[in-house]
Automatic annotation (TrEMBL):
Domain of life: Bacteria
A molecular function (GO) term: FMN binding
Protein name (Swiss-Prot/TrEMBL): 2-hydroxy-acid oxidase
Cofactor needs: FMN
Length: 372
């Protein structure tokens, strides 16, 4: 397909009412290669990420007292307007020329925290500055920003990224541990770079998938290990959050290494083909962690009922990845803000229908399980 993408819309048309609508419309607003890259993932795991939510039934409750209802929660001492964050997603400028700046302004306007990727296409300091400017203009409290770290080959480069994030006012470091070895062949279009990294390039060795021997190479021998988690814990005063765990045993090890929260994730189906969905492993993770650290999840979260299901099974909050880029491609900042608004409004409706005016009221009793 070689069609010129449509420019971003300047007004939101009334037929855009769900995240699925945004996904459908976004395709025409992005170059074909970028669209394919954003949507890509293991077909089985991608399908599972949605199917796992769809399999769960909710049990509505009637005539509950909903006065004083809200969706706020406190995380690391900071108030969030809803249990929703924007997941770290590389290269927002693939979707819109303003890239991460448009996303963070939406984030600030909606009070939805954002996790900025190591591979952001705008420097992390510029993003933090835009968030502060937006909060000042809108007269709202600054939104919590977290920085996502991909460990770099050279530890000094990783240390520098962490120091920059601290200096710029980021409030947590999210260490992504499930994508140290990657095999994407996607070539960035002209004008889009890894703005935080020396030379503007992601140096985690990318190689064409298939046929490449891994063991015995530097890629395998230098891959990050639990020692790097201990190193990071000792190198920053910020909370360290591990992203990309699925095994209960890894959750134990993470907490023993000082992780203050865990993001249960299969990277949007982009890493191990055949990995389970986060929502399916969540009960085992919650049991393993036993309240020692908040659990967040991502992968296929697209509706308010998905968020309720995640909360009922033990998650504190959820993150959304691709929908940010869909919103950006369709209508820039307004599109991302609308995506956040849809999720939040949809969550409130689901909570009301379940008779839960606040997040702490959502629990296993919200789930319907067929008596066997
Ligand atoms: C990602 N993800 C990701 N994760 C991360 O820690 N650092 C990154 O730079 C990226 N980059 C990235 C790019 C693109 C195009 C996608 C789709 C995903 C993974 C992301 O944080 C999150 O785990 C998933 O996107 C969640 O799944 P959904 O919401 O996209 O279904």
């Amino acid at each position: 397909r070689d069609v010129t993408p449509l420019p971003p819309l300047t007004a939101i048309p009334p037929d855009l009412q769900t995240l699925a609508d945004y996904e459908r419309v976004a395709e025409r607003h992005m170059p074909a290669a970028s669209w394919a890259h954003v949507q890509s993932g293991s077909a089985a795991t991608l399908a599972r990420n949605r199917a796992a939510f769809e399999r769960i039934s909710l049990l509505p409750r009637m005539l509950a007292d909903l006065r004083g209802g809200h969706t706020r929660l406190t995380l690391f001492g900071r108030e969030h307007q809803a249990p929703i964050l924007f997941a770290p997603v590389a290269y927002h400028r693939l979707a819109h020329p303003e890239g991460e700046l448009a996303c963070v302004r939406a984030s600030a306007a909606m009070g939805i925290g954002m996790v900025v990727s190591t591979l952001s296409s705008v420097p992390l300091e510029t993003i933090a500055e835009a968030a502060r400017d937006a909060a000042r203009t809108l007269g709202v409290a600054p939104v919590p920003l977290w920085f996502q770290l991909y460990l770099q080959e050279d530890r000094a480069v990783s240390a520098e990224l962490v120091a920059r994030a601290e200096a710029a006012g980021y409030e947590a470091i999210v260490l992504t541990v499930d994508a140290s070895i990657k095999t994407s062949g996607f070539a960035l279009p002209a004008g889009v770079t890894a703005a935080n990294l020396p030379g503007g390039a992601d140096r985690r060795q990318t190689s064409a998938p298939g046929g490449r021997i891994l063991f015995g190479t530097r890629l395998a021998d230098d891959a990050p290990s639990w020692d790097d988690v201990a190193w990071l814990r000792a190198s920053t005063r910020l909370p360290v959050i591990l992203k990309g765990l699925l095994a209960a045993e890894d959750a134990h090890i993470a907490i023993a290494h000082g992780a203050e929260a865990i993001i249960v994730s299969n990277h949007g189906g982009r890493t191990l083909d055949g990995a389970p969905s986060a929502i399916d492993v969540l009960p085992a993770m919650a049991e393993a962690v036993a309240g020692a650290a908040p659990l967040l999840i991502d992968g296929g979260v697209r509706t308010g009922t998905d968020i309720v299901k995640a909360r009922a099974l033990g998650a504190t909050a959820v993150l959304v990845g691709r929908p940010q880029l869909h919103g950006l491609a369709v209508a820039g900042m307004a599109g991302v803000a609308h995506v956040a608004h849809i999720l939040r409004a949809d969550l409130e409706l689901a909570m009301a229908q379940l008779g839960c005016p606040t997040l702490d009221r959502i629990g296993p009793a919200c789930l319907f399980t067929r008596a066997s």
